[in-house]
Amino acid sequence: MPTASTAPPTGRTESGPANTLAVVDPTVVAETTATVAPALPAASTTGGTVWLTGLPSAGKTTVATAVAERLRGTGRRVEVLDGDAVREHLSAGLGFSRADRDTNVARIGFVAELLARNGVLVLAAVISPYAAARDAVRARHVASGTPFLEVHVATPVEVCSVRDVKGLYAKQRSGQIAGLTGVDDVYEAPGTPELVLRTDNSTLDASVDAVLAALSERGLL
Ligand SMILES: Nc1ncnc2c1ncn2[C@@H]1O[C@H](COP(=O)(O)OS(=O)(=O)O)[C@@H](OP(=O)(O)O)[C@H]1O
Ligand SMILES: Nc1ncnc2c1ncn2[C@@H]1O[C@H](COP(=O)(O)OP(=O)(O)O)[C@@H](O)[C@H]1O
């Protein structure tokens, strides 16, 4: 809710009826507003979405977080949308069927576009295994003229399964889970992503630099 110090002179107050100030002498309102209204910020920086797709343990979250950290130091408005975290809230209750994954990706894409359209730089770290679902997210951004960069975190499954940050690959091997992306469930690699990161043969810093360069090339930094 807007506070008294930031509310525009709409003639409304939070506690009174909508037209409370409409009966007040407008010069008084003008004086009051002139006293408390803060200076408007300069035009906001263009937002955009960086969509990191890849297998579990590929490095999506690690890269997204590191890019965000670098940018926060510059004062840029940045948000990380992580599939894992979103599944605890916005996508609570969804599983890993194709339908549920598509729903999850569509929800994250919706929020990403909303934030990006309003000047936030969004880093979405989501497996998003199906090309059609990712393309739909891109289309949503294109429709509103919001920049969208697909980044394939293309770490090979052999490397991901050794990293096995959450023990999922081991669980799949021992038969405790099935339908693990890249092992016994589909992962459709992007055909023409804006950027491909191979975290198995380059450093985290190099990946962060590559993402920042891609943003800079598009005037998003
Ligand atoms: N069966 C199966 N397949 C793939 N991933 C699995 C599975 N079960 C649980 N997890 C964990 O779920 C984390 C979030 O996945 P996402 O929301 O990004 O997946 S999806 O885009 O909806 O497919 C995902 O997080 P990351 O490891 O960070 O990618 C996995 O750790
Ligand atoms: N160059 C690199 N870039 C990103 N992560 C790396 C790199 N080298 C090793 N790692 C490690 O790989 C793991 C990736 O995990 P995470 O970012 O959670 O993957 P994801 O989000 O794709 O599941 C982390 O433990 C990270 O420290």
From TrEMBL:
InterPro entries: APS (IPR002891), APS_kinase_dom (IPR059117), P-loop_NTPase (IPR027417), Sulf_AdTrans/APS_kinase (IPR050512). GO terms for molecular function: kinase activity. The keyword RNA-binding does not apply. Residues 47-197 form the APS kinase domain. CDD domains: APSK. The keyword Kinase applies. ATP binds at G54, L55, P56, S57, A58, G59, K60, T61. Pathway: Sulfur metabolism; hydrogen sulfide biosynthesis; sulfite from sulfate: step 2/3. Keywords: ATP-binding, Kinase, Nucleotide-binding, Phosphoprotein, Transferase. It comes from the Bacteria. Catalyzes the synthesis of activated sulfate. PANTHER family: SULFATE ADENYLYLTRANSFERASE. This is Adenylyl-sulfate kinase. The gene is cysC_1.
